[in-house]
Structure formats: C-alpha cells, structure tokens
Amino acid sequence: MNNKERAKKIKMIIMDVDGTLTDGTLLILPDGEELKSYNVKDGTGILLAHLAGLRTGIITGKISKSLEKRAEKLKIIDVYQGILDKKKTLSEILGKNNLKSDQIAYIGDDLGDLEVIKAAGFAAAVADAHPEIKKNCHFICNTPGGRGAVREFIEFILEAQDKWGMIETNIKNLTKTSKKKK
Ligand SMILES: [Mg+2]
Fold first, then answer.
1. N or C terminus: which one in the chain shows less Cβ crowding within 10 Å?
2. The CATH number of the domain where 152 resides is what?
3. Interval 120-164: pLDDT, tens
4. Could you report how far apart the first and last alpha carbons of the chain are, in Å?
C-alpha cells in the first residue's frame, strides 16, 4: 500500500508534542513551570483537519499547562498528558472513538513514539526525528518539528482525501454564520 492509499483511510490524526508540535525547546521558569513555543502553521493545519471532518488528538509524556491552553484553543478534544505507554493510550482512543488502527495517523519524533508509530495505520516522522523513528515511519516530513511538520503531514492527508472543496465550503459557511451574528 502506498502513502496516498494509507492517507485516504485516516479519520483521526494524533500528535506528539515535544519535538513534533514544538522544536523541543523548553523554557523553565524559576517556579519550575515549563514554557514551549508552538507554530501557527501547525495550528492552522489542525483547524483545517477539523474543517475537513477529521479528528485530532495529542499523546505526550510530559504535563504542561501551556499545552492545555493550546489544545483548548485549537479545539483538540483527545488530549492525553503524562503518558508513558503511548500504545496503550492509542488503544483507549481507538475504543473511545470507535476507530480501527488503519484509520489513525500518528506523527512523532523520538524513541518514546516508536511503539505507537508501529501500531498506527499511517505514521510520520518530523524531518529531524531520531533515525530509528524515521526507519519505522511511512512518511518523513521535509520540515522539522515545531516548524510546520504537522501541517505538512495534515496537508498530505487532506490532499489524498480530496478535502479542499469541503474545507472551502465550510469556511464560507463559517463566514456567513459569523456575519449573521453581527
Ligand atoms: Mg517528542
């Protein structure tokens, strides 16, 4: 099966955070709180996926308040933080959303993602991912983590599913509704 065929089946895209949605940098405040920076391009990609009727989710080993805020803003419902066994969480997500593994896409960067990458129907590595991750992924982004890799992967899926027309219509409808509200 080629990547286009894999992408066509996807109903949900799950993302790692550190090194995938971010470039891996952590800023530690004196009180111990960690700050991360996210990329607007990835954020827009996630919104586009939602407009195309796809679900998105996050599985991360760390716990951070900033991620909670970011996910809330982007309306990502399935957010799992502080997860050591990502594959187990993936099974939970499959059950909860009534999906099969070939309907799940996953994007990650490091060894903690290896097992979940092997279990996902369509797996992607950011351009600067660990070599072992790249070896086990179907799709390797040209863009590094935190610089639009997630957007690149989402757009590949949207393209394969021929979703641009649907996205345009949904954007038009959203504009109409917001005009009515005014
Ligand atoms: Mg990572």
1. C
2. 3.40.50.1000
3. 999 999 999 999 999 999 999 999 999 999 999 999 999 999 999
4. 49
